[in-house]
Amino acid sequence: MTADERREELKVLLQEARTCTRCAQLASTRATVVFGAGNADADLMFVGEAPGANEDKQGLPFVGQAGRLLDQLLSEIGLSRADVFIQNTLMCRPPGNRDPQPGEIQNCSAYLLRKIELVRPQVICTLGNFATKLLRDDPTGITRLHGRPEERRIGNLDVTLYPLFHPAAALYTPAMLETLRADFAGIPELLREPEAEAEPVAELQLGLF
Q1: Whose CA is closest to 33, among 49, 46, 47, 50?
Q2: Angle at 176 (CA atoms; ends 80, 178), nearest 5 degrees
Q3: pLDDT, tens digit, 9 for 90 and up, residues 38-58
Q4: pLDDT digits (tens, 9 = 90+) for 104-124
Q5: CB neighbour list of residue 197: distance below 8 Å, 6 or more residues apart
Q6: In this structure, is residue 153 part of a structural domain?
Q7: Is 45 within 8 Å of 87 (Cβ atoms)?
């Protein structure tokens, strides 16, 4: 596909997502579907957890406090939202901001994979446990994995997967914020040399949930 064709396919997928009712509870309580936003040709993609209240109202990912911190961390490495694509494992807000349920993650995973295939990022940063466990197809937690790049095959795409703490977890914990900042500092090198010091390729099956 050309870049223009991929953008058109993203638009088609967006229209499909806006009418999705695979998760009956989420479809009945959401204000809007938070599809994802940013550069449709981005080399760098972020995958978070699920929309919160602000995201549900505005239809955009990471627009609250965690989003402002994400903007700050991007700025510190010379990037902005215009350079990246941001999405979540879920496109609908769980009621009361509860954790995503396994069935909900599974229901939304096809949309997530399709967006990855259409944007074709070079590096995917998973923010927190849910995205990390899903895209690694492994239950290992973010505390053990953060800041360690590895090569993965996701759908039909070979990418560098780079697990990071979720910005929300670092908002009120200075030590975690400094860890997140240090891990972010490694992103530019991954974008220049995506295969450097990466672990062997593993193919994603999305069987964890």
Answers
A1: 50
A2: 60
A3: 999 999 999 999 999 999 999
A4: 999 999 999 999 999 999 999
A5: 149
A6: yes
A7: yes
